[in-house]
Every structure is written in C-alpha cells, then in structure tokens.
Amino acid sequence: MRIVLLGPPGAGKGSLASLFAQRLRLAHLSTGEIFRHEMANGSALGRRVKRYVSSGRLVPDSLVVQVMTAQLGKKSGRRGFVLDGFPRTERQARGLDRVLLRRRQPIDAAILLTSPEALLIRRLSGRRVCAACGANYHLRTMRPKMPGRCDRCRGTLVTRKDDQPATIRKRLAIDHKEAKPLVTYYARDRRLYRVDGRGRIGTVFVRAMKLIRRMGWWHDRAQNRRRA
Ligand code: AMP
To answer: I need a surface site. Which of 91, 122, 155, 159 has the fewest CB within 10 A?
Structure first.
C-alpha cells in the first residue's frame, strides 16, 4: 500500500503514520522528522532548511522533492509506504507523481485528515518532542511516564520551536493557502479520501483502516491466505 497523508499541522498525520508503520509494516517517511534530524546533526541540508523550519515557513518545493526522491530510493518498503507531511503543495504533489510514475509505484490514495481549527491549536500547543530521539508526546493525551522525560530513551522533552503560539498561527495560515490546490489536485482524479481526524488516535486509526480495507488497498496475511 502506498499512501500520502494530507492535513493541516496538528491533524494527527505523524501519529497515524506511526501506527500504520507499526501495524502494517509500512515505511514511514516524514519530511518534518527528516529535516529535524538533519538540523540536529548540523548537516549541510540541516543548515539549508533551518531558517524555514524554525520560522514555520515551507522549505522550497524543489529542495523538498529532491530530498524525498532520494529517501524513497533508499526506503520505499517491501509492503509500501506512508508519506507524512509531504506533499504539502500542488507542485510537490506533481513532483512526487513524476518520480513514482518512473518507478511504476503510483500512490493508492491521498488521505485527508480533517479537524476543526480550535482542536489543531490545542493539539499543537500541548505537543512535546524528545530532543534526543524525536518521539512525540502530548501534555494531555499522550503523557510520558516520567514528566519531561522520554519513555523510549530518557531524553528531555521540549516544545518544538515551531509549536510556539505565533508560529502555530503562521503555519496554519500557510497551510490554509496551500491546501486548497493540493486537495483539488488529488480530488480531480478521484484519489482523495477524507477521514475524520477528531478523537483519540486509536479511533482515527480504526476509521482509516475501515476505508483502507473497503478500498482493498491493504490485506493482512490471514486475509491473503484465505484468498489464495
Ligand atoms: P511538520 O513536522 O510536518 O509539521 O514539519 C515541520 C516543518 O518542516 C514545517 O513547518 C516546514 O518548515 C518543514 N516542512 C515539512 N514538510 C515540508 C514540505 N513538504 N514542504 C515544505 N516544508 C516542509
């Protein structure tokens, strides 16, 4: 299965993509995480994207497509992939389609996670991330076992620079502008599916799986054996 997750910041793309990766063994590629990792390592790419990421602006399309083309070459997964945070503009979506067409690996669908804006703001402002390994937490809905410490590696939990209130507002405004043409692009050839992103991540996962099974994009092994 090859899917892209669309939706504004705070819609739950990262959490849903992680569940897809764990449960369905899909490769999970997140542009935001790739950029944060490169920034933490101080690589040439990290230095190039830092000013955009820290201020909540979008990294230029050509650079994002170049980075993701390389990533997909390395890690497109035997069972497929889920892309989270990419594409974010219509130009990126066209670039992605060109790359996947060359590889004869078109996406099955673009899943748009929908949420009211007040919920997005609540989610983004309560979000904490491990400074060491990048794991995500939330002050209300996904608390770490020990306050301020990562369950996985004991690293310190911090607020992402781009999750500060002024930057949140800016990111939502940028998304608002870019989302319409992006969504229209996928809707035009009937690749767009909407999933209600409200509620707990487990609930959202169940909703998404219902769609995925109904559309026949993924079958579990037991199902495959029964079909054979
Ligand atoms: P995210 O973790 O998906 O919210 O991404 C964090 C930041 O990385 C964004 O605010 C952008 O600065 C940058 N970024 C992530 N994905 C993209 C993308 N597809 N296009 C441009 N910039 C991106």
So the answer is: 159
Question: What pLDDT does 226 receive?
Answer: 57
Q: Check which CATH number belongs to the domain holding 109 and give it.
A: 3.40.50.300
Q: What does pLDDT average to over the chain?
A: 92
* Domain count of the fold of the chain: 1
Write the residue with the smallest CA distance to atom 2 of ligand 1: 32
Question: Which CA distances in Å does 132 have to 149, 154, 163, 164?
Answer: 10, 8, 17, 19
* Residues marked as catalytic: 13, 88, 127, 160, 171
User: Which residue range is the domain that position 213 belongs to?
Assistant: 2-227
What is this structure's pTM? Answer: 0.88
pLDDT, tens only, 133-184: 888 899 988 899 999 999 999 999 999 888 888 899 999 999 999 999 999 9
pLDDT digits (tens, 9 = 90+) for 78-112: 889 999 999 999 999 999 999 999 999 999 999 99
Kindly report the protein residue whose alpha carbon is nearest to atom 1 of ligand 1.
32
C-alpha 96/C-alpha 68 separation (Å) is 8
The set of protein residues with a Cβ atom below 6 angstroms from ligand 1 is 9, 31-32, 35, 52-53, 56-59, 64, 85-88, 92, 162, 171
Residue 14's pLDDT band (cuts 50, 70, 90): very high
Neighbours of 124 (CB within 10 A): 24
CA atoms within 13 A on the CB side of 6: 26
Pocket of ligand 1, candidates 6, 18, 33, 53: which has the most ligand atoms within 8 Å of its Cβ, to mutate? 53
